[in-house]
């Protein structure tokens, strides 16, 4: 992942999460400085601390510091070894993309969706930088709990070896997030992390609705908008 040292935040939409440093000609007291201090993930940070990865579908994807902290863990890096479509590559040789690529793509799509919502309805909905970061993180981490061979492990293997198992990759994702934050001492507020987990649970509830309800009442999800499968397979 290369360092980002490009345009200023106001010139680059990818840097929308950067809050400019306050400018003042007076001396800032310790108390005042503490009052304006915010966690680094939605406050000020050096442009060069933002990394970019190149995706063959979406182009350059900018990872802000908090996203990078999660991506750089071994728990997230293991997604490089999990094929998105399990054993499908044995029939479609081009279907070798991984959960790692997919997760980065959903992170990017979530950012695009939130940028547009904020542009057109931001004031009406009260969307702020923390909201944007939360949705992007939920997209990035939504598949981190997947087992080997993805859905094949969850829906075919486990029911045969552990009859009655209620294990789901969404629940595993929530458990892993807690573990990752503690193990790697990631600087994220508890309320922020809780909302990311709630989004994961909500995704699981939507998935278990009947197909008729999903098709007639739910908008296209960011996961469904990911075109990587059709792009690489055909």
From TrEMBL:
CDD domains named in the record: HDc (cd00077)
Single GO biological process annotation from the record: dGTP catabolic process
GO molecular function: dGTPase activity
GO CC annotations, alphabetized: nucleus
Gene3D superfamilies to which the protein is assigned, alphabetical: Hypothetical protein af1432
Domain HD: 99-189
InterPro entries according to UniProt: dGTPase-like (IPR050135), HD/PDEase_dom (IPR003607), HD_domain (IPR006674)
UniProt-listed PANTHER family: DEOXYNUCLEOSIDE TRIPHOSPHATE TRIPHOSPHOHYDROLASE, DEOXYNUCLEOSIDE TRIPHOSPHATE TRIPHOSPHOHYDROLASE SAMHD1
Identification of the protein by name: HD domain-containing protein
Organism of provenance: Oryza glaberrima
